[in-house]
Amino acid sequence: MAARKLTPTEVLAQPLELPCGLVLPNRLVKCPMQETLAVAPFFDPPIEKFQNLYGQWAEANYGLIITGQVQIDIRFLSIAGDVVCHPDSLEPPHIESWKRWAEIAQSKGTPCIVQLAHPGRMSPAGAGQRPADMPTLCPSSVPVQVGDKWLDKLAVSKMLGTPKAMDLADIDGAVEDWKRGARVAKIAGFKGIQLHGAHGFLLSQFLSPHTNRRTDDYGGNPEGRLKLLKRLVTEIREECPPPFCLSVKLNSGDYMAEGGLSQDEALEQVRWLVTCGMVDFVEISGGNAEQKTSGLHNSFGKQTISQAPQIRESTRIREAYYTEFAERVTQLPNKKCPIQLSGGFRSRNGMADAITSSACDLIGLGRTAVLEPDIPKRLLLNHALSDEEALARPHIVKGQWLSNMIPIKVVGSSLPIQLFYFNMRRLGNGLQPDPDKSILGMIWSSVVETFHSGLSVAVHRVLETCGLSKAQKVD
Ligand SMILES: Cc1cc2nc3c(=O)[nH]c(=O)nc-3n(C[C@H](O)[C@H](O)[C@H](O)COP(=O)(O)O)c2cc1C
């Protein structure tokens, strides 16, 4: 008798054992998304806020939670508020915050891994703790270009400047920082790490011929451009063997108009990762902060769907952006690890179809996990809701006209993503998401917040000056 075909809910609810032995209870992965909640000077995991934010994701029944990117070098953040793994992170009191974070995120049985990153030349001045005259780092000294007008060039040169080409000591230093990140994650109790090799950050700067014009062993040809990633995978594996999970996030290309990373070369890079026997899963995503058609942090495609697509025998449901590339990866011979596909998923049918048609094994949920943090339990894995009802809300950001009106592209194009940072901060403050907030509304809220905090600082100073500060009043 032929086996019964699984329903879309059953397809998503299937557990998956990774090569390291870690068992994921289902196929839905909360994507890495930087929370922008950590504060200077140490940028440790902010426990109260993470209790609220990761507590919600922990309750939601994901198969895996990947943290937002954690920077490995306190001098180079990708945005203010990134968590940082610094040289003191292994010592008390810092390691206690890391342990608590691992506990909160995994409190209901979902495993959690930490994404480790270095932004390279995409580190804006003022976001990290580096002297004003210290340049960003890059495999070669290739400045970022977002927009063609003189105002664009001025803004980018003020924010990012011209990067320094990394020398071998810089590369060795970064490798040590990444290894320390893995060590901290392991000691804290996380189940593994993911190396961020996508979206135009340092590792993808090494992988792309546009930013890697080196002539030494770390560049020169496709093999050389892959050398840093190979070194990291090998050395981290040596130090953190299974059952510790080691994952890599990669792009399906870097979307540069000329001289960038082609899909064919990206496929060769993935080929090594999926056949080397040291990596537990590869996440495939897309986008590049510098790409000509979009702006900083834009890793999203454009299409949107208004209702859940129907499952039919003959047609493929392609709501995800990078399905074609994922299919090329899954067809690679001798593939030893599963593939996570991220970008654009909204319907239960579309997700299940991507798995049953072998485009991928795991489904990454980014913006949806912010706007509807409980979506696996409430909707996608809920048998009581029909496949037609199982559709996440659209990711439309209201007031995008404002971002188009701003004459500086690097500023204008990074406005829509603020909705998701804004909502992660709301979740961190114990509030529900507000998906309908417009760009103008967010700007107004931050003006009011700044005014309030400025006012309270001013009132506090006046009270202090009058000898009436809180501590003295209690006395
Ligand atoms: C607010 C926000 C922050 C993000 N931060 C990260 C990050 O830290 N690391 C990363 O690899 N991707 C990051 N991404 C990209 C997501 O992981 C994911 O690849 C992307 O959002 C596409 O998935 P989606 O269509 O489900 O949103 C971020 C996306 C958003 C919206």
Short description:
38% of the residues lie in helices and 11% in strands.
Give a written overview of the molecule.
The chain has 475 residues and is of the alpha/beta class. It has one domain: TIM Barrel (Alpha-Beta Barrel). The protein has 18 helices and 14 strands. The strands form 3 sheets. The chain has an 8-stranded parallel barrel, surrounded by 5 helices. A two-stranded antiparallel sheet has the order 1-2. The chain has a two-stranded parallel sheet with strand order 8-9. Helix 2 crosses helix 16 (418-428), helix 3 packs across helix 5 and helix 5 runs parallel beside helix 8. The protein starts with 7 loop residues before the first helix and ends with a helix. The relative contact order is 0.12. The site of flavin mononucleotide has 25 residues, from strand 14, helix 12 and helix 16.
